[in-house]
Write a structure and sequence with these properties.
Blueprint: H1 2-9, H2 13-19, H3 27-33, H4 39-46, H5 53-59, H6 65-72, H7 79-86, H8 92-95, H9 103-115
Helix pairs in contact: 1-2, 2-4, 4-6
């Protein structure tokens, strides 16, 4: 565990990104890295399935677009938030790729797409 904490505290963003791959990394480590000053570390945390729903929602407001787009696809994003993102033109393209879309919502999307004029 001391090795993992040294990765997280390392000044190199590369080492902090590697901490997310460590099997001993916990949801608390992911939460800490989701607040990292380096955008790429936050993006890697945003794609981690151990990320808390609250941190996934918080990362939707990240200053970096690639962090926000990754957070939209996090499977822990609350359904209510994800459904709202599907209705927003700016976020729908990223949100539709989320593995957490409820089947009922996916059916409505497909029905609407099939009925749309071509």
């Amino acid at each position: 565990r001391a090795g993992l904490l040294s990765y997280i505290a390392d000044p190199s963003g590369r080492m902090r990104r590697l901490a997310l791959d460590d099997p001993e990394s916990t949801p608390a480590h992911v939460a800490r890295l989701a607040r990292d000053p380096e955008a790429e570390v936050r993006r890697r945390a945003a794609e981690d399935p151990r990320l808390s729903p609250a941190d996934a929602v918080r990362l939707l407001n990240d200053p970096e677009v690639h962090v926000r787009d990754t957070a939209v696809r996090n499977p822990r994003l609350p359904t209510r938030i994800l459904t709202g993102l599907l209705h927003d033109r700016d976020t729908a393209c990223a949100a539709v790729t989320s593995p957490a879309i409820p089947v009922s919502v996916l059916h409505r999307i497909l029905t609407a797409a099939a009925a749309a004029p071509r």
